[in-house]
Write a structure and sequence with these properties.
single chain, about 300 residues, alpha/beta, four-stranded mixed beta sheet, 16 helices, DUF2268 domain-containing protein, DUF2268
């Protein structure tokens, strides 16, 4: 297994020193080109000739610092992600996550992996709702973390990367289609966060789960999501998964859901599944969502108890 890191701190320094008119293409070449296959799979244009057209720069800048923001004014942010110890911790998290699957009998079809950590855009409302850190790992072989670096987010990046590694493994075995259901998203996010806490403990449980109270989960989220598991189409799925505020930011119709409702529900559903079946998180990660949902039908009507 070949796991490589892309040291974004070195790229940020280079872009910060570049002329204004050179920043965008330098960033595209250095930071985004190594992930070209990911963008192609997601059908995101690498570069468009149309003025202000949608491409990887526009997509990447939704949550991350855009090229024009990368100047000496953010030198403190760059410094905070520049230590060898930070990158070593991140690399160890990715290596441990992937190797644990092979050690538990899961033979991974993908052998080459690339990961990096980018500086998050503090003006992104969606990112700040998740307390300034996030990730992207749904395309096998490519793992990205995002953070606004501070004392809270930096130690949590290893858990975020583990979360994304779990997605990376799952979608080497589960076929992604445009007919994907809300149930698959709920299961997938629950598996990913369960894996992260399996590795690093519940003290690093992401805000996408930790912010949800037991009352909100049992009285509001579970009854609503129970009836929507077979819903398809991103415009229908995203409001239930991310909640109304993020849905509005994405121009989707709100459905009365709190922040990251589907994530929180998914985490406790998978915890229920693991206890009920005795299966490991490694087995569960490559199990189709419909099989998992079939075995936890009781979850929807039982009171979930949140420990701690």
């Amino acid at each position: 297994m070949n796991i490589q890191s892309l040291r974004s701190d070195q790229i940020y320094r280079k872009v910060a020193q570049a002329l204004s008119e050179e920043k965008t293409e330098l960033f595209r070449t250095e930071m985004l080109a190594p992930f070209l296959k990911k963008w192609q799979i997601q059908q995101i244009p690498f570069k468009t000739e149309a003025p202000y057209g949608f491409d990887v720069i526009v997509m990447n800048s939704i949550m991350n610092r855009s090229p024009e923001q990368i100047t000496d004014q953010i030198s403190d942010e760059i410094r905070l992600i520049s230590s060898d110890s930070f990158w070593s911790e991140c690399e160890d998290a990715v290596k441990k996550s992937l190797h644990l699957f092979t050690e538990h009998g899961v033979s991974l079809p993908v052998s080459d992996y690339l990961f990096t950590v980018q500086l998050g855009n503090p003006e992104s409302r969606a990112l700040m709702l998740s307390e300034g850190y996030s990730g992207d790992g749904g395309i096998p072989g490519y793992i990205l973390g995002t953070l606004v670096p501070n004392a809270y987010t930096l130690p949590r990046m290893k858990a975020a990367l583990a979360h994304e590694c779990n997605h990376n493994v799952r979608y080497q075995f589960i076929q992604w289609t445009t007919a994907v259901t809300l149930g698959e998203f709920i299961v997938s996010e629950g598996l990913a966060e369960s894996f992260a806490t399996f590795l690093f403990g519940e003290e690093l449980l992401g805000p996408w789960v930790a912010k949800t109270s037991v009352e909100t989960l049992n009285r509001h989220i579970k009854p609503a999501l129970k009836e929507q598991l077979q819903v398809t189409g991103f415009d229908k799925i995203m409001p239930y998964l991310y909640g109304d505020e993020i849905a509005k930011l994405q121009n989707f119709e709100p459905v009365g859901m709190p922040y990251s409702a589907g994530y929180a529900c998914g985490y406790y559903l998978i915890q229920h599944y693991l206890r009920k079946t005795g299966r490991t998180i490694f087995e569960a990660t490559i199990t189709p969502a419909n099989q998992i949902l079939e075995e936890v039908k009781g979850f929807w009507d039982e009171e979930t108890i949140i420990s701690g």
